[in-house]
What we know:
The chain is an alpha+beta fold. The protein is built from five helices and four strands. Helix 1 (8-19) crosses helix 2.
Amino acid sequence: MMTESLDELDLRILEQLQQDASLTNQDLAERVHASAPTCMRRVRRLTISGVIQKQVALVDPAKVGTTLTAILEVTLDIQSAESLQQFEGVVALEAAVLQCYRVSSGPDFILVTQVADMPAYHALVHRALTAKANVRNVRTFFAIHRSKFNTGIALGKSHA
């Protein structure tokens, strides 16, 4: 589904679901000023088309004992398409890796990780990165304070 095919109602639905995906269909319909059947059809269409990828619960890291956020810059020795895909496959299997971005002009990848503590961080780096022959360099930044965290994407003309 292309952005052009999203109308104002779709955008209002997406805004509401990004704030609280646990809304009942009736509550969603009331908030976006549409009928419940219309909302249900729209959400189903947005899900089938892949605009809505999945619905999740956001967990407070401190309340589950994973308080160390580490942002890693990873540079590979060999940057062939196969090597890049192989690295992505390795980090995809690591639950502590929350996000992985292939980037340009600098390191090859940026990883955002969430672990319990420094020993867990060291184990992750050894298991997923330094034990792999193709990793040349790992540079890590440890978060000391999170001033903003949001998963919602700005939608509509007013957010451009």
